[in-house]
Design goal:
Length: 194
């Protein structure tokens, strides 16, 4: 009996060590942190027109500015399959840490519900916003009204002027679309061609 317990313990140790080695081999090196002593304003978003989804399993990830060590780089929006069922997309942002600002790159995160849900979640009422005058020193901008975005919970995105590449595009509020699988996919507010 003691021999069997010893043998089982040995096998368990071997399995744990081999799994640990396998996990250690899967570690992906982290990118170098981008740190700034002061907050660096994110440039105005660019206007994007959402194309048709390649299939019902895909969700739209909006374009966003990503920070490089010395400048900003625009990452265009695109259709992508979420990595897991309760995934939602988090745009990049500055995080204050010990007197500095650290750039958190855009990434997938988990919530109770992701961008694909079993039943649609009611969209809150839109906030009343006062549209300010357009920036005087900038051309080719259009007012993008504030809207609710689904990120596993509702997040208000304030209205702002965005650079326009398609002046004839019209603003379409976000909406839930049913899929052939019986689930619902969140299609974010976007610019569309009529």
């Amino acid at each position: 009996m003691k021999r069997n317990i010893g043998l089982l313990a040995f096998v368990a140790i071997v399995l744990v060590v081999s799994q640990w080695r396998w996990l250690a081999a899967q570690v992906v090196p982290e990118e170098t942190a981008i740190v700034s002593p002061t907050y660096v304003a994110v440039p105005a978003r660019q206007q994007e027109v959402i194309t048709e989804a390649p299939s019902p399993q895909y969700v739209w990830v909006s374009g966003q500015w990503e920070r490089t060590p010395s400048s900003w780089s625009w990452a265009a929006g695109h259709w992508v399959q979420p990595p897991f069922s309760n995934a939602y997309w988090v745009p990049g942002y500055w995080r204050h840490n010990s007197g500095h600002f650290v750039w958190q790159s855009a990434h997938w995160a988990a919530a109770a519900q992701g961008v694909v849900v079993q039943k649609p979640v009611t969209i809150p009422p839109v906030y009343a916003e006062v549209q300010p005058a357009a920036p005087a020193n900038v051309t080719n901008v259009v007012w993008q009204p504030g809207y609710w975005d689904w990120r596993g919970t509702w997040v208000w995105v304030a209205g702002e002027y965005v650079q326009t590449t398609t002046p004839k595009a019209t603003w379409v509020p976000g909406a839930w679309d049913s899929t052939v699988a019986g689930t619902w996919r969140w299609n974010p507010a976007n610019w569309a061609l009529s």
